[in-house]
Amino acid sequence: MITDCHVHLRQICELDDTAIDYILQNDYSALVSCHCIEDLEFALKIKDLKGTSNGRIHISYGVHPFSLEGSGLQLLKDLAGSGKIDAVGEIGLDRYSDEQKRSFEMQKKFFEAQIEVAQSSGLPAVLHLRKAMPDLLKYSKMLSDLKAVIFHSYSGTAQEAQAVIDRDVNAFFSFGTSILNGHLKAVGSVCALPLQNILIETDSPYQPLKNLPWTKIQDIEPILLKISELKKVDLLTARQIISSNFVKMLTKSW
Asked: How far apart (Å, rounded) are the C-alpha atoms in residues 92 and 64?
């Protein structure tokens, strides 16, 4: 099985008519990131088409720090309570731009509320994090109570990642096209972290390879190959360990 722990399914399928065929015809499992009703309904449709015979579509839902709306928070609570989602996210903290800096106090309120939903429902949380690791570490106790915490498109240092692990957080760090594009921090983190703490993603259609318009779902394969090369393990071993990590992080805590 090949796994993609972060994909925007509706958006890539609107851009690329080969995406659905790849999903349905391969032993492929994905965690689909949803942020609106349209995303959710599309993901549920593809989940039904995919079935469970050769991989599975899983669904996450969360209020992104770029769109802090109370209605989204209520929908998250309803979805978690009904068992329709497999993870909370992507949620997070972002200080990257002036706009995000201005909204940071509100971001924290939404983040805390959504972590509480993940905790009460036994679901993992998928984190969006930019220039906010010191802020995140203040939530270590809350995060350590979760089944798993996935750092989507991790761009921090290996030392920062280790600081999270050292605080008893069951953390997985997900890497995508950044390692193919030569992002030095991402490559360094892959090399330093145990393979048991690593996941892979396309973030499709976003974060494309250099000089390309979008990330294809099929790009998960060269990402996996690059991980195996950086970790100096054979491709089958890398696939098996990362697939195991994917299953573990989605297993409910009760």
From this structure: 7
